[in-house]
Amino acid sequence: MRKYVLIVSCFMLASLFTYAQKVDFELYTLENGMDVILHQDNTAPVVITAVMYHVGAKDEQPDRTGMAHFFEHLLFEGTQNIERGEWFKIVSASGGSNNANTTDDRTYYYEIFPSNNVELGLWMESERLLHPVINQIGVDTQNEVVKEEKRLRVDNQPYGNLLAEVKKLMFYKHPYKGTTIGEMEHLDAATLEEFQAFNKKFYVPNNATLVVAGDINPSEVRKMIDKYFGPIPRGEDIVRKKIEEDPITEVRKGTAYDSNIQIPAIIAAYRTPSQKERDSYVLNMISTYLSEGKSSVLYKKLVDEKKMALAVQAVNISQEDYGTYALFALPLGEVELSTLLAEIDTEIEKIQTDLISERDFQKIQNQFENNFVNSNSSIAGIAGSLATYHVLYGDINLINNEIDIYRSITREEIREVAKKYLNKNARVELEYLPKKDEQ
User: Fold this and answer.
1) Could you tell me the pLDDT band of residue 20, with boundaries at 50, 70 and 90?
2) What are 342-350's contacts with CB under 8 Å, separation 24+?
């Protein structure tokens, strides 16, 4: 039995190292400015075709929020060569699946097909870029879809507006102050011409990165890409204005109410640097130390030992321009929110004063090693990482060497970064409370 367990363990370890092997890729640019990334992996007959556009909620006009997310839906409506309502039917009939998602910084579309349908995936993505049909019927249809999504995922979701309330206090100038889904009255007011102008500005090859990953023949795929994407004309260069926030020099306090909750929450949030900065990586490690897993500092103290909290979490919400480092807790019983925050602050102060133990440091290093391996354990994961590192980080090689950044971080850096960013006089404090019944 022991021999069997040993064999299984060795096999699992070998598999882990196999998945952790270097991700090979080819990066090149078409004449129209579209960046192309190819990754060949013939271990399974699967291929993913994906396009990431460097457009998100931060690129919208202040009175037309939600436009980027709206396009995530609108561009499945159909094209000049794909009839309205046929997109998903074509994909499923060919044994595939597809989806899209939007953030403040980018929009990502992808299809996963059996590898013999790679040309179909490329044709469909080229159709989305070259021949989209943007008409009033599609706009009206997707307007209702987006409204329903907002009702389900935000308005009627417990704590669904929490992050939005934090961002209002965190950012006064930068578009991050808004939400990705936007304001419905802005979408209602938008004209068809405004939707068409948004498409013309941002959905151009020189604002897009195409990724083809999986069971492919690179030379054949390159010919297909030239065929379907090469003729697409380059768009106007996109000029983005850099918007800088003033430092937070005193606590910004706020209160928000949510009719969907019964338990209040306390949030302390700090503005942090771009995800591209080394300090952002250090803050990720601090979050893991504080709240990842039941043996983490805050969970063990507040949930297990003192039984003061139902839940506690620390997270660095890193983005292209800025990040938001948030500490979140739900009290247990009659524990005051201020008491809970004071207990959290005590642990933050310890990090700022003392070096974390060697044992804890090694533990979080191991967690990041494991996360790194898992992120590259599927073709879909690799494709998403290749696009993200290229578009948002400007360094596609991070798919292989980002873990080296974490490996190089020291305990002393953790202490110094905590001192630099997690200051009580430079944060947002939000009490998120159940909404009382109106009398």
Assistant:
1) low
2) 343/301, 343/302, 343/306, 343/308, 344/268, 344/298, 344/302, 344/312, 345/268, 345/424, 347/290, 347/297, 347/298, 347/301, 348/418, 348/422
